[in-house]
Write a structure and sequence with these properties.
The chain crosses the membrane at residues 41-61, 82-105, 117-138, 150-167, 173-194. This is Metallopeptidase. InterPro entries: Metallopeptidase_M50B. Keywords: Membrane, Transmembrane, Transmembrane helix. There is one protein chain. By secondary structure, the chain is mostly helical. Helices cover 71% and strands 6% of the residues. Helix 1 packs parallel to helix 4, helix 3 crosses helix 6 and helix 6 runs antiparallel to helix 8. It is globular, with a radius of gyration of 17 Å. The chain has a two-stranded antiparallel sheet with strand order 1-2. It folds into two domains: 1-109, no CATH class; 110-195, no CATH class. The longest helix is centred in the N-terminal third of the chain and has 31 residues, at 41-71.
Length: 195
C-alpha cells in the first residue's frame, strides 16, 4: 500500500490538529489562557493523551477505509479538510467539538457490497479499538477511558445514515448489516457519554 507525499502530510496535519482540538476541549482552555496553556507541561500531557486516543482512532479509521478500498483494486487516498480542521481547533477552544478531518477518496468501479465493506471498515475499526483500550483501565485509567469513549463515539457517529457518513453507504448496501452494526454502535456511543 502506497502513500503519496500529500497524503502523508494530510494525515499528519489532521492527526495533529485533532490532537490539539481535543486537548483544548478536554482541558477546558479559554482563549484568555491559551498561550499559557500551550507553553505549559499540562499541554504536553493533554496533547499526548489526545494523539494516542483521538488521533489513533481517527488514523486507523481512515486507514481501514483505505486498506479495504485498495484490496478491491481502488486507488485510494486520504485528503484532509483544512477548513473543518481549523473549525475543530476553534471549537475545542470554544468548548465544543465537531470534527470532520477529511476522508479517504477512492475511484474505480465497485459493487454496492464493496462500497459497503469500505464504509464499514472505519466504524468496525473504532469498535475494535474500544475493546483494545479497555484492558488498559488497570494500568492507566485515563488513557483507557478516553480511548474507549472516543472510539465508541466515533463508531456510533459514523454509523448515522446521513450525509457523507459511513452509515448511509452501509445502509444503502444492506439494511440488516447496517442494523447489526449501527444499533449497538449508537447504543455504545450513548453509553460512552456517561463513562
Amino acid at each position: 500500500m502506497r502513500f503519496s507525499d500529500r497524503e502523508r502530510r494530510d494525515l499528519l496535519v489532521a492527526w495533529l490538529a485533532l490532537g490539539l482540538a481535543f486537548a483544548l476541549f478536554f482541558q477546558r482552555v479559554s482563549p484568555a489562557n491559551l498561550l499559557a496553556f500551550l507553553t505549559s507541561r499540562a499541554f504536553v500531557g493533554a496533547m499526548l493523551l489526545s494523539l494516542l486516543t483521538v488521533g489513533v482512532g481517527f488514523l486507523l479509521h481512515e486507514l481501514a477505509h483505505k486498506v479495504v478500498a485498495v484490496r478491491y483494486g481502488q486507488h485510494a487516498e486520504f485528503r484532509a479538510d483544512y477548513t473543518f480542521l481549523a473549525l475543530a481547533v476553534a471549537g475545542g477552544l470554544a468548548g465544543f467539538i465537531f470534527a470532520a478531518p477529511g476522508a479517504v477518496y477512492h475511484r474505480g468501479r465497485l459493487t454496492a457490497a464493496q462500497h459497503g465493506h469500505i464504509a464499514l471498515a472505519g466504524p468496525v475499526t473504532n469498535l475494535a479499538l474500544a475493546v483494545a483500550f479497555a484492558p488498559l483501565w488497570f494500568v492507566t485509567p485515563l488513557l483507557a477511558q478516553r480511548g474507549v469513549q472516543i472510539n465508541l463515539l466515533l463508531a456510533g457517529f459514523n454509523m448515522l445514515p446521513i450525509g457523507g457518513l459511513d452509515g448511509k453507504t452501509v445502509k444503502r448496501w444492506s439494511i440488516p448489516v447496517y442494523l447489526a452494526v449501527a444499533v449497538p454502535s449508537m447504543l455504545l456511543a450513548i453509553s460512552a457519554i456517561f463513562i
